[in-house]
Design goal:
about 375 residues, alpha+beta, 5-stranded mixed sheet, about 55% helix
Length: about 375
């Protein structure tokens, strides 16, 4: 795996590590965030920026070869004729058939036909005879004369001295080369990371999410005392980046997020939701498992991340909630940084089913922590 792919994989792991679906705080991020990371940088982009680095990959210093100590002997190739033993048995019938054929042809008297047959058979056997003869190569070890071997050693020693000089030069060249190659690779890695970040935020900007959000001051958007109290904490932490009384129009319907965080110059958004187990007045179960699935999908389709806290968490540990949001934002803004996975310091809360919500309503569980205010 090259460095570029490593950056992409680690950034993807950073983003997916913040996702939490089974316990509060629930964190959901748009698929588009991960898809942006998977868009590859074309090698040509880097090659055009740092052509020298690519040239160095194919121009390593040439390592000198150590001369070979000459041997006192050498191998000489020779050739010999091999006749298979069976061939000798063919000579007698070949000679006899040739004599018989000549006799029949020379005597006349109607025996010429037999002479030709004998001649044909003799020729065929002669052909088989020559097929059984072939040549074979073999090596003969020959020792050099002392004078000639001495000249080879003298040449070897000269080449050996030259090799040591060339090797010293090579060692210096390879040190310089490796240093320059490392520096070039650092530049490539840094440039790759810069381009990845650039493409990441360009991808976020292209969603044009902000243009699809209407900011509303509609008095019908009611908030309870716990939500307003938590808004004070959010505003203290995030100032004007946190907004309330917003409405988001979708194809299905209009949604009113509890709070909307806009950051990184409007390129990233987080919908902060407070989940209660039941309606305080009617006692009807709300926010149980899967009930908010469509709502969540609408925000995620608009490339808006979601963090859902339980009401108990924002009442009992609002500072921890704000700190957790801040840690999530750091990862979303720069998933390429080696952050530790965000950890909620307060008490985690399992999601509740419809039946559990009914029981909590019967026991007025919200009263036990609403009294904080």
């Amino acid at each position: 795996m090259n460095k570029l792919n490593t950056y992409q994989v680690k950034a993807e792991e950073s983003l997916t590590s913040i996702i939490s679906k089974d316990q509060y705080p629930i964190v959901l991020i748009p698929n588009e965030l991960v898809s942006i990371l998977k868009k590859n940088i074309l090698p040509k982009e880097i090659k055009d920026k740092y052509p020298r680095a690519y040239m160095m990959r194919h121009n390593d210093p040439v390592k000198p070869e150590h001369p070979t100590l000459p041997s006192e002997t050498t191998e000489i190739k020779k050739e010999r004729i091999i006749i298979e033993p069976l061939a000798y048995f063919l000579l007698v019938p070949v000679i006899f058939l040739f004599w018989l054929a000549i006799s029949c042809i020379s005597d006349g008297g109607g025996t010429e036909m037999f002479g030709l047959v004998y001649l044909f058979i003799a020729g065929y056997l002669l052909y088989k005879f020559f097929k059984m003869i072939h040549t074979e190569n073999y090596n003969v070890t020959v020792r050099y004369t002392d004078k000639y071997y001495g000249s080879l050693l003298e040449k070897y020693n000269i080449e050996k001295e030259q090799y040591h000089e060339d090797y010293k030069i090579y060692q210096n060249q390879i040190k310089i080369y490796n240093f320059q190659k490392l520096e070039q690779q650092k530049k490539i890695d840094q440039y790759s990371l810069t381009i990845l970040k650039q493409k990441y935020f360009e991808g976020l900007s292209s969603s044009l999410f902000y243009s699809r959000i209407d900011i509303s001051n509609d008095e019908s958007v009611k908030k309870g005392s716990s939500e307003m109290r938590f808004f004070e904490y959010l505003f203290g932490y995030f100032k004007n980046e946190v907004k309330i009384d917003c409405k988001v129009d979708t194809v299905r319907q209009t949604y009113y997020p509890d709070y909307l965080l806009t950051f990184n110059n409007g390129k990233l958004y987080i919908n902060i939701e407070i989940d209660e187990p039941y309606d305080f007045i009617s006692k009807q179960p709300i926010h149980f498992i899967d009930i908010d699935k469509v709502r969540n999908e609408c925000f995620l389709d608009k490339n808006c991340s979601i963090i859902r806290f339980s009401e108990e968490q924002i009442i009992n540990t609002p500072e921890y909630c704000c700190k957790y949001i801040s840690d999530i934002i750091k990862v979303l803004e720069n998933p390429f940084h080696a952050y530790d996975p965000p950890k909620f310091l307060g008490k985690l809360r399992d999601r509740w089913t419809y039946e559990e919500s009914v029981i909590m309503a019967k026991n007025n569980i919200r009263d036990t922590y609403q009294n904080v205010f």
